[in-house]
User: Fold this.
Amino acid sequence: MIVGVVTSADAEVFQVALSRCVSTDGGNGDPPKFQPPPKPVMIDKSKTEASHRRFLSPEFIPPRQRTNPFKFAIERKDMIQRRKIIDIPEFYVGSVLAVVMADVYASGKSNRFVGICTQRSGKGLGATFVLRNIIDGQGVEICYDLYSPRIQQIEVLKFEKRLDDNLMYLRDALPEYSTFDFDMKAMPPPLPGAEVPINQQKVKMKPRPWSKRWERSRFNIKGIPFELYFTEEELTHAKKWDTPWVEYDMLKEYDTSNVEKHIWTEVQRELSK
Assistant:
């Protein structure tokens, strides 16, 4: 006959196990109910936290020729307060947006406009963006103040970039590239941390003359197949206005990495309050 010695630690473990059994079966002697295990959380360990893409709206970056940095610091506070009231999503030139704006001529009513973003400009509270659409065969462009108190909603219907940072040449392109249905449904956004999709589409232009000489190098247009509209001699003539030395001008370089890091930290801290 073997006699075991029960210590206080063993007694405590036994009491805990007994209490769990009683709590699961309800004290009626019934077997405990089956509880499925929790779903596993899939974590992509191949990407570190630093590899995820961070987006800082371009109007937060002050221009290089700023004369009063204090002015932009005060404006950033107003911009952050505005973003706490209305959701200003991430979008780029080439994205299709729907903007709802209050009608100043009719109390309690609003107007909704759908179009492709052809231009983003301005800094601070003066940031603007232009939407273009074809309505009844007529091109319509509306320039919005990004931080206007009249804007009630900005919805991204199609999230993408284009080959160019300015699409004002769509004025001279065929109407099909600027026509969007006002009942267009929003397309699913890309996964968090994914790269912004780039639309490689090149547009077909109307017969010349155009509103501007888009073939010249100062516009740096990549979304127009110029070889379809110009002869080789005309393209050679357009290269006379090239300025290849500009890319080597160190005085024109504006490194904003440190500025972006500081402003990103400030914006995230204020938005989390």
Summary: DSSP finds four helices and five strands in the chain. The CA atoms of residues 132 and 141 lie 4 Å apart. The mean pLDDT is 85.
